[in-house]
Amino acid sequence: MEAIISAIKDAFLGSWSLQLVLVSILLSLVWPTFKYYAKMTAILFVSFMVLVIPIPLFLIKPRWPLNALISGIVACEFIRWLGVEYEIRGTEHINVKNGGVVLLNHQSAIDIVLLSRLLRDFRNIVPVVKKELFYAFPFGIGSYLVGVVFIDRKNTASAKDVMNRESIAINRDNLKLAIFPEGTRHDKDTLLPFKKGSFH
After folding, report:
1. What pairing do the DSSP bridges indicate for beta strands 100-103 and 125-130?
2. Which end of the chain has less neighbouring CB within 10 Å, N or C?
3. Boundaries of each Phospholipid/glycerol acyltransferase domain copy (predicted)?
């Protein structure tokens, strides 16, 4: 018995990652704010990893929206395992058979979870995001390889050109562009004024 206790003690004292996990669990039990931020960090980390680890697989067929399907399923299951609850409203208005534009309310950085769920349920959904995210290495490369559309919000002509090209893919490939028309995060119950790009 002493040998077992000694082995556990040595494993705990020698492993900073195990110590970090145990301290995080204890803090989560006594401090709800810590629990919230720990879950948020875990969600962002997993969302990052499910786009980065499979990059070699994405290279087989780059820019294919279904590349993100397995990543989306993994992210959804992880969120469910964490016990995070969220609600997606209005999916009954999404035409499953045809392409189109899906407008979303951008509430937080974890909206990638919402996109994962929509991708899992409707398949050909491609987010439209600000071009700055492309330079978030290696997340930007993973995003590019799963077909994410990057636009320059400061250059209207360039953004229109990109949207015109994507409108062809909407019709040809039955793609659904997922656009956050408010243009920025907003966590209130009311909506901000919509940018015009989603209606171009």
Report:
1. unpaired
2. N
3. 100-200
DSSP letter at 59?
T
Cis omega (within 30 of 0) for bond into 181: no
Report the pLDDT value the prediction gives residue 66, as an integer from 0 to 100. 86
Does any domain span residue 95?
A: yes
| Count of domains observed in the chain | 1
21, part of any domain: no
Q: Does 150 reside within a domain?
A: yes
Q: Give the Cα separation of 100 and 161 in Å (integer).
A: 17
Q: Give the list of residues 6+ apart from residue 39 with CB closer than 8 angstroms, or none.
A: 82, 84
Q: Which domain holds residue 103?
A: 31-199
Residue 122's contacts (CB-CB under 8 Å, 6 or more residues apart) are 91, 94, 96, 176
Give the model's pLDDT for residue 10. Answer: 61
